[in-house]
Amino acid sequence: MSVCQSCGFERKYLGKKCPACGEPYLTLVELIAEQEANDEKHSFKGRCKRILTAENSKDAFWLEVELIKAGLSKKSIFTIFLIISFVFALTLSVL
Ligand SMILES: [Zn+2]
Predict the structure, then answer these.
(1) Are residues 4 and 17 in the same domain?
(2) If you measure from the C-alpha of residue 79 to the centroid of ligand 1, how many angstroms do you get, rounded to a whole number?
(3) What is the pLDDT of residues 18-73, one digit of tens each?
(4) Which of 6, 46, 69, 92 might form a disulfide with 40, Cβ 3.0–4.6 angstroms?
């Protein structure tokens, strides 16, 4: 956390304001809260919470699916596909 949160200017001394844009620096507590909010946004727990608290949970669910898909690369989609087909093949062979 050594850059200004508003303009990205490198934070070289422990002042209360950014020398580049004059915005006050966030305190450590604010930074941690922001970090936690950001983590939750991308965590499984955060996603579930958003789906459950949404008015239309079905729409919210598909929105999250779209967001996850947008965040994935083609390679990771392929990996997930491989895992699913492997599990599927295993299940079939047991039945
Ligand atoms: Zn700044």
Answers:
(1) yes
(2) 41
(3) 888 888 877 778 878 888 888 888 888 888 888 889 889 899 999 888 888 888 88
(4) 46
Give me the pLDDT at residue 86, please: 92
Give the residue from 39, 31, 23, 37 showing the smallest Cα distance to 2.
Answer: 31
Which three-class secondary structure state does DSSP give residue 55? coil
Angle 23-17-29 from CA coordinates, rounded to 5°: 90
Are both 51 and 72 inside the same structural domain? yes
Q: What total of structural domains would you count in the chain?
A: 2
How much distance in Å is there from the Cα of 12 to the middle of ligand 1? 12
Ligand 1 centroid to Cα of residue 11, in Å, is 8
Centroid of ligand 1 to alpha carbon of 27 (angstroms): 14
For residues 60 and 84, state if they share a domain.
Answer: yes
Q: Which domain holds residue 89?
A: 43-94
Tell me, yes or no, whether 32 and 70 share the same domain. Answer: no
